[in-house]
Design brief:
Growth Hormone, Chain: A, mainly alpha, globular, Sugar MFS transporter, 21 helices, membrane, MFS_trans_sf
Length: 423
């Protein structure tokens, strides 16, 4: 019989290896997701769009989570977590490949199709990886593990806009000034050359995603049986026949919907908002990375403080209130100061997502996969709230659009205070 300490060491080593692999996947999530912050102003110029049309980039990407979350859960039931993650990476590669013909033809709908398919692959990955990292260890430290994943995600997210921005938005301030002086033929040629800038980076992305899919497929990631329940959970869920019978989960889905909406608004609108405030795109293209650096700082606070000094609920209460105040200050100030408060929303948003998942999945037992897919559907908030913001920006001003974030943060505070206790 092997000593207990050896068994524990082996389990810890296996968990650490699994966390490393999942961290790599979260890095990919962040890199692909936060490219949208550059694609919105880039495609607005290249495809000659207004604000509302440009925010269809976020809509096409995030609406896939709503449409594909339930099919993703079905895929995971058939394949298990590991093969499902590998399949998600392949789907993402297909979406990235569509950017090549889209750039060659400058057809906006093709770009949107590519983004939708990328989002579909991410829906599969997120449906698998978020509950996986939540369950992989002690429940009370789940928010800490998700915070570590968040750092992987946001480090990639901070890098992505800088990399793509340096390629896609290079000299666009000069280009936009010259376009008005060109005839139609010259404009078309200049915009075709601008659209072609994304061909090489997205071709490289296709190759990287396929390579990672192979690595994950042959990795040693253990399968986790989420259909098993401990005795207490099994007794509590004895009369449950549907995942819809958990009020705290349904309120959690709404909290995710609103949270992702405000997170995407903060990261994806800040470049265009800074330009509206009179800041050159050559400087504004770095502001999404500032937002994500703020999120990384918040995740570090979570790793240090949760659960030793702060519970998930307390962190969520505190940071949602910060979000409401930062939004208010952004709408009441101008110039760099206003943009600075939008960037600070990254810090405010950081510990909300890590707190929602363990609170919403608590006690689901055999309904965990279905619960996870519902939470993933909530990511559609990233599709609808930025689109609403774009409509308000066209009707009034980009600054007025940020008012919709305040009630969202207030509901998130309610979920942390009372909503997650509803049984």
């Amino acid at each position: 019989m092997k000593p207990l300490s050896i068994e524990i060491d082996k389990e810890a080593t296996s968990n650490n290896r699994s966390i490393l692999i999942i961290g790599m996947l979260f890095f990919i999530f962040g890199f692909v997701t936060w490219l949208n912050a550059v694609l919105i102003p880039y495609l607005k110029i290249a495809c000659e769009l207004n604000n509302f049309e440009s925010y269809l980039v976020a809509f096409a990407f995030y609406i896939s989570y709503l449409v594909m979350a339930i099919p993703s859960a079905v895929v995971l039931k058939l394949t298990g977590f590991k093969k499902g993650m590998s399949a998600g990476l392949i789907v993402m590669a297909v979406g990235a490949a569509i950017f090549v013909p889209a750039a060659m033809t400058r057809i906006y709908s093709l770009f949107l199709l590519g983004l939708f398919i990328q989002g579909t692959g991410l829906a599969i990955l997120q449906t698998a990886s978020n509950p996986y990292i939540t369950i992989l260890g002690r429940p009370e430290s789940a928010a800490k593990r998700i915070s570590i994943m968040g750092i992987c995600n946001k480090v990639a997210g901070a890098i992505a806009p800088i990399v793509l921005g340096a390629i896609a938005l290079k000299d666009t301030d000069v280009l936009t000034q010259r376009l008005s002086k060109m005839d139609i033929g010259q404009q078309g040629a200049a915009l075709d050359a601008l659209a072609a800038r994304v061909i090489v980076p997205y071709t490289v992305m296709v190759l990287v995603l396929i390579f990672l899919a192979v690595i994950v497929h042959f990795s040693g990631l253990p399968e986790i049986d989420t259909d098993k329940e401990d005795e207490i959970t099994a007794v509590a869920n004895l009369d449950k026949t549907s995942v819809l019978q958990f009020p705290h989960l349904l309120l959690g889905v709404l909290a995710v919907f609103l949270y992702v909406g405000v997170e995407v608004m903060a990261g994806d609108t800040i470049i265009s908002y800074a330009a509206w405030q009179g800041i050159a795109l050559s400087k504004a293209k770095f502001f999404t990375s500032c937002t994500l650096v703020g999120m990384i700082a918040g995740y570090l606070v979570g790793i240090i403080c949760i659960p030793k000094y702060l519970s998930s609920e307390k962190a969520m209460k505190l940071f949602s209130i910060l979000g409401a105040f930062f939004t208010l200050f952004a709408t009441l100030s101008t110039g760099y100061l206003s943009v600075f408060f939008i960037a600070l929303l990254g810090f405010a948003n950081s510990l909300i997502w890590p707190a929602i998942w363990p609170l919403a999945l608590s006690g689901l037992g055999r309904f965990t996969k279905e619960g996870s897919s519902l939470l993933i559907m909530g990511i559609a908030g990233g599709a609808l709230l930025p689109l609403l913001y774009g409509a308000i920006a066209d009707r009034f001003t980009p600054q007025h659009g940020y008012w919709i974030m305040i009630p969202a943060y207030i509901f998130i505070w309610y979920y942390a205070f009372l909503g997650h206790k509803r049984r």
